[in-house]
Amino acid sequence: MDRFYQGSYFLGFLKLALLIIGFVTAFIFIGVFILWGLGIYVLIDLFFVYKAVQRDNYHKILLVLE
Asked: Which ranges of the chain have pLDDT less than 70?
């Protein structure tokens, strides 16, 4: 949901699709690797999204104060 909130719909759908594909293919062991890769991507992405949302919120506060 973080990428949807930020407005990056393509990356949001990509993360959602990888999650669904990972769960569906987990029984044949391919999905485990997809889910591991997605988990690493999510952990790294948390830092980027946190900074971007923080910057957007700061910008919104400045617009209100003007």
From this structure: none
Q: Can you tell me the distance from the alpha carbon of 1 to that of 22, in angstroms, rounded to the nearest whole number?
A: 17
Tell me, yes or no, if the pTM score tops 0.85: no
CA angle 25, 30, 36 (to 5 degrees): 100
> How is 34-53 classified by DSSP, letter by letter?
HHHHHHHHHHHHHHHHHHHH
CA–CA dist 36, 63 (Å, integer): 40
Cβ atoms of residues 41 and 12 within 8 Å: no
